[in-house]
């Protein structure tokens, strides 16, 4: 059965890594669910959400030119319920709020770090005009 972008399929988790999970979606076809596509909440460890040999629903979100298949668990929930809405801040539990805060904080710190590294490499610091 050929796999196409947009399909929602059932698959079996064949491997778990720190960056996601590999899921066999048809005979001989395996795709990757990136850690960011596992759940709507912050995922620090994929093992908290998935185990090997779990049967899960996934959506095919892309197929690269070299045949790599990208999958999403999160996006299956969006399509299964037309009235899906993103929870408001007040609807979230304390743990979900904390997870969101940690994720946002890590992203901001990474942006700041990248910004500072790019400034250091530019050579504009340390130069002084000689009068």
TrEMBL record:
EC numbers, comma separated: 2.7.-.-
Taxonomy, superkingdom: Bacteria
Residues covered by the S1 motif domain: 6-74
Keyword field contains tRNA processing: no
Top EC group: transferase
The UniProt record lists the keyword Cytoplasm: no
Keywords of this entry: Transferase
GO terms (BP aspect): translation
InterPro entries with a match to the protein in the record: NA-bd_OB-fold (IPR012340), Ribos_protein_bS1-like (IPR050437), S1_domain (IPR003029)
GO molecular function list: mRNA binding; structural constituent of ribosome; transferase activity
Gene3D superfamilies: Nucleic acid-binding proteins
Function, as annotated: Binds mRNA; thus facilitating recognition of the initiation point. It is needed to translate mRNA with a short Shine-Dalgarno (SD) purine-rich sequence.
Name assigned to this protein: Putative RNA degradation protein polyribonucleotide nucleotidyltransferase or phosphorylase
């Amino acid at each position: 059965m050929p796999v196409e972008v947009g399909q929602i399929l059932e698959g079996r988790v064949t491997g778990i890594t720190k960056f996601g999970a590999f899921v066999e979606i048809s005979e001989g076809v395996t795709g990757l669910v990136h850690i960011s596509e596992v759940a709507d909440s912050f995922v620090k460890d994929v093992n908290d959400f998935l185990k090997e040999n779990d049967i899960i629903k996934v959506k095919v979100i892309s197929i690269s030119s070299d045949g790599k298949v990208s999958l999403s668990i999160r996006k299956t929930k969006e399509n299964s319920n037309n009235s899906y809405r993103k929870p408001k801040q007040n609807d979230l539990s304390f743990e979900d709020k904390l997870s969101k805060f940690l994720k946002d904080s890590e992203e901001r710190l990474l942006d700041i770090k990248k910004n500072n590294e790019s400034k250091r490499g530019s050579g504009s610091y340390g130069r002084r005009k000689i009068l």
